[in-house]
Description:
By secondary structure, the protein is α/β, with parallel strands linked by helices.
Amino acid sequence: MLKEMVHSLPPSEKKLAEYILENPEESIMLTALSLGRESGTSSAAVIRLCKSIGLKGFQELKIRVAGDLQEQTGQGYRDIEPNDKTENLIEKMTSNTIQTIKETVDMIRASDLENAADTLSKANSIIIIGFGASYIAAKDAEQKFTRIDKFVQAFSDVHMGATAIANKGSEDVVVGISFSGKTKQVIDLLELAKTKQVKTISITKSGKSPVSNMSDIQLYTSAAKEATFRSGATSSRMAQLHVIDILLMIIASSEYEEIIQHLDETREAIAALKQR
């Protein structure tokens, strides 16, 4: 998270982040006051940095850094090469996908997922907004939640999305999916939802962004940089799909008997059509 966001941070927070990246072992042994002093910043900068990267406080930052230090250093994200062998491509893409999902799991909070799942479960209707590759995740969520008898609509057209949201209220939910967290259409539709008292959930890469700032519940995915050919259609999509699957399973687990019945009924309906 720090590596990805360091260049977009304010000067004092950037200086602090660079110090932590260069001295991770020492940093986790210091207090906020001493870390600020050692890095040439301040304890206030430490607190601001934690907020900027979406953490609850300095203790959580130290725990996460310590956790990373315990893991073996991998090869990181690997891009393809001209005329790469198929065996190499299989290994690289598999490794990249695993790393993306692992990083997403490392940064997501169980409490946030539970809050989002509870909100979705109780909603009268769910609208999911996504543009470009994020629309693929939105459609996947629409299909899966429809199977468990939730009224869901996915939109990638801003006018259709606005029309649907205009008739919603406090018992409904709008989910905005945007890897960058800066997609203007998503921001505009979440803002409209706010004016209608609609509950909002965002799925973005880690760190504060206009989309996450606009939502009531923030869910984050890996913020790792994309390799040349690993556009948002690959790594970010896999992370978004993983978060959606987790939300679905949380709801399914809490409403087990009812959800199983819905899944059985949809399965039987599809099977009957196939036999015709």
